Amino acid sequence: MTLAGSDLETDYALDGAAIAHFTEHGFVKLKNVLSPATVAAYEPEITGKVIELNTQHLPMAERDTYGKAFLQVTNLWQDSERVLEFVSSPRLARIAAQLLGVRSVRLYHDQALYKESGGGVTPWHADQYYWPFSTDRCVTVWIPLQETPMEMGPLAFAAGSHTFEHGRDLPISDESEAVLQQALADQDFPEHVGPYELGEVSYHLGWTFHHAHENRTGTPRRVMTVIYVDADMVVSEPVNSEQKADLAAWLPGNQPGDTVSSPLNPILY
């Protein structure tokens, strides 16, 4: 049993309209996925682990664009039983499987993304640039651990951009921000952005372009993410150095042509 009761374990009533929105636009925001009590029960542990495991100690002014965007700590579940409970949530994983239209999903990895007070923009990018996967059946759940108003830098999506192949070869950078901002506007992919209520989460496909604005508040924007892949996902040949690094880090022992199956990738639903 999880700390805050059963809402990490029970089913969420995902309706057809939400699935249709995700299929058409490459993302969906869902209200009341987690109760305020659940967020409150797990946020201190997640935040504590971010503080403990964070390796970014440069002053903001001395960081590059990526470094200013957020503090990034991965696979917290390996360092905390409580975070493991959160990341392993059947509720969150089942939503991912339903949205992807697959029978079962595995964990790829988790990421805490904390945008500090005064943190800069997260440039336009698509996550799957970094992932050595043979299909697009992979999705990230973005879970704010507080109410997230516009001035805190909530995630913003280019609706429908999961079908747009231009810019997929760009890592998060000043170049990706400039090139994709123009290209997405030229192709009329509208930007969807809005605040997140406490307990509201979003899911986006690996190829959906997204970004976030600065955190103009005095409070860190605390976000936990979990990346899910189709349980039958086949590892692809890496096409860049980042995918080679991800293959080694998050799929140890797997090789191109294998089905994702390393000890770091348990089936979650």
Automatic annotation (TrEMBL):
The keyword Oxidoreductase applies. PANTHER family: PHYTANOYL-COA DIOXYGENASE, PHYTANOYL-COA DIOXYGENASE DOMAIN CONTAINING 1. One of its GO terms (molecular function) is iron ion binding. InterPro entries: Phytyl_CoA_dOase-like. This is Ectoine hydroxylase-related dioxygenase (Phytanoyl-CoA dioxygenase family). Keywords: Dioxygenase, Oxidoreductase. Transmembrane segments: none annotated. It comes from Kribbella amoyensis. The keyword Oxidoreductase applies. It comes from the Bacteria. Gene3D superfamilies: q2cbj1_9rhob like domain (2.60.120.620).
